[in-house]
Write a structure and sequence with these properties.
The protein is built from 13 helices and five strands. With 408 residues, it is an alpha+beta fold. Strands 1-2-3-5-4 form a five-stranded mixed sheet. α9 runs antiparallel to α13. It catalyses: ATP + protein L-histidine = ADP + protein N-phospho-L-histidine. Keywords: ATP-binding, Kinase, Membrane, Nucleotide-binding, Phosphoprotein, Transferase, Transmembrane, Transmembrane helix, Two-component regulatory system. It comes from Glutamicibacter mishrai.
Length: 408
């Protein structure tokens, strides 16, 4: 009973709702009235008008669903065979057969949709053998049209199933990305606490120190330091708030691919010292080590004074480093050379990754990594350049340091 209920639940409803049902009923009624009007039922003797309705009953049944339409179509073929398979009834059955068979094959589950026209052809063939003097041409015409209708219906069925599969996959991805975004917001909240706690702690220590200083010059220096730290804290707050806003527009969390694809390194493996220059370099080394252990020959370059990078920007770079490593793992030629670099220049900081492009399709790719990087860079006024040259893929992330106060 449960199997039957599950099977019938997979049958799709007729498109068009009530309008689609009325169209089928009216179409059957018009064709039946037309046949009666021209006197086609006179040749069937007594109850000729009732016999003339047989070819059109499956159309009416189809308005109730694919299963009633298919069952009544098979029943009508058997009834027509029982009255001798007159050519007029078989000719009248051709057009309804096309609609019923194609519609049923489109609406039924795939396995039943394949079996239905095959069963119809088998039933038609054996009834022809059993009925004396059955018109071969009329039977063959019905069989040919049933075959064409079956192929058309199965083609539409396959297209419908692909569409439903794609829709389901999109819905699943949206749900998964919603979960990832929620997780990302939690992570950003922790990072916000880390950054603000760092700067506010410095402000508190400097303020306490000012209580014990009598020198006006030193007091002024301390107050200037407090002002700079407060300015940095505000800058960090603005940056992280913008990141939270950009997340909804560019699926920043989905770009991390933490749960939908392979990751170069887990969050737990990163240093956690996200407000220090040493922590940023440690994270870069961790990504390089992870690539090295995966079989790549990694050339890591760090140039410039990393301490000049503000704490909030270090957080964005930390995530971008991880994303660059993940992209290499997905798209680079196995056991090839990879170059990763962090360059702190006078006016900007640049992250650079270069790798050979693999001809193999990546196992998993959410295709949102670059969009996520661009979302982060826009918060700090930076930009991302990515492209192929001589079978090498280069990703460059450049963020200006002008206007960002130096982290403590």
């Amino acid at each position: 009973m449960r199997n039957w209920t599950a099977w019938t639940a997979d049958i799709k409803p007729l498109p068009g709702g009530i309008v689609g049902r009325l169209v089928l009923v009216l179409l059957a009624l018009i064709m039946y009235v037309g046949d009666v009007w021209v006197g086609s039922g006179d040749s069937f003797g007594k109850y000729g008008a009732l016999k003339l309705a047989l070819p059109y009953l499956p159309l009416v049944a189809l308005s109730l669903g694919a299963l009633p339409g298919a069952a009544l179509w098979l029943a009508c073929i058997c009834i027509i065979a029982a009255v001798g398979m007159p050519g007029a009834l078989l000719a009248g059955l051709v057009f309804p057969s096309v609609i019923v068979v194609a519609g049923s094959c489109y609406l039924l589950p795939w396995r039943q949709a394949v079996l239905f026209p095959l069963l119809g052809e088998v039933v038609l063939f054996f009834l022809y053998l059993l009925v004396p003097n059955a018109p071969l041409f009329a039977v063959a015409m019905v069989g040919v049209f049933v075959a064409f209708a079956g192929v058309a219906g199965l083609s539409l069925n396959a297209f419908r199933r692909r569409h439903e599969s794609s829709t389901k996959r999109i819905e699943d991805l949206e749900v998964e990305q919603a979960k990832i975004r929620a997780n990302e917001r939690t992570l950003l909240a922790h990072e916000l606490h880390d950054i603000v706690a760092h700067d506010v702690t410095i402000i508190a220590m400097q303020a306490r120190r000012a209580e014990f200083v009598d020198d006006q010059k030193k007091t002024s220096e301390i107050l200037e330091g407090i002002g700079n730290s407060a300015q940095q804290t505000l800058q960090d707050l603005r940056s992280l708030v913008l990141l939270l806003k950009e997340e909804d527009k560019a699926s920043d969390a989905a770009g991390e691919s933490a749960t939908v694809g392979p990751s170069i390194i887990d969050l737990a493996e990163l240093s956690g010292e996200t407000t220090t220059a040493v922590g940023l370099v440690h994270d870069l080394d961790a990504v390089a080590d992870a690539l090295q252990s995966s079989g790549y020959e990694v050339k890591l370059t760090v140039q410039g004074e990393v301490a000049r990078i503000p704490a909030s920007l270090r957080q964005a770079l930390r995530r971008t480093i991880r994303e660059l490593g993940t992209n290499v793992l997905k798209h680079a030629v196995p056991a090839s050379s990879v170059e990763v670099g962090l360059y702190v220049r006078e006016g900007n900081v640049q992250l650079l990754a270069t790798n050979d492009i693999s001809d193999e399709k990546p196992i998993v790719s959410s295709k949102t990594g670059l969009e996520a990087m661009r979302a982060r860079c826009r918060v700090f006024g930076g930009f991302v350049e990515a492209g192929e040259a001589d079978r090498e893929w280069t990703t460059s992330v450049t963020i200006p340091l002008d206007g960002l106060s130096k982290a403590n």
